[in-house]
Write a structure and sequence with these properties.
mainly alpha, three-stranded antiparallel beta sheet, 124 residues
Length: 124
């Protein structure tokens, strides 16, 4: 099951790369913007509940799709870029085993607990 989920995340990341290739930006923009969604971790300065909320908003794929589609519908390349970066970043994170966070702590994710070594997938 774990490999199937990773394959799905890889497909989403590759799709985001294909979308990015159609945008009017130089290739260096994608790696330059890649870590921007991780600014959501700043919410952890206010505690684990706020941190989890901020992180999850910044890594939610439905939000990424909404932003990207809004950019497409409005003809706004900056929104298209933002949605594409969010999808690419979130898929890449999940490919590595980093999921959406629970309010109990940064290491508690919907994919399991992140610790030393490879995270295990949650069974529930």
């Amino acid at each position: 099951m774990k490999n199937l989920l990773k394959l799905e995340e890889l497909a989403e990341a590759l799709f985001a790369l294909a979308v990015f290739a159609r945008l009017p930006y130089a290739w260096w923009v994608l790696p330059a913007a890649f870590l921007l969604p991780d600014l959501g971790m700043a919410g952890y300065l206010a505690g684990p509940r706020v941190g989890a909320f901020c992180y999850n908003v910044a890594h939610h794929k439905a939000l990424a799709l909404a932003v990207g589609l809004a950019g497409w519908g409005l003809g706004q390349p900056a929104l298209q870029l933002a949605g594409t970066v969010l999808i690419f970043h979130s898929a890449f994170d999940r490919l590595l085993g980093y999921g959406l966070k629970y309010a109990t702590g940064f290491r508690d994710t919907h994919l399991g607990r992140v610790g030393v070594g490879e995270p295990e997938l949650a069974v529930n």
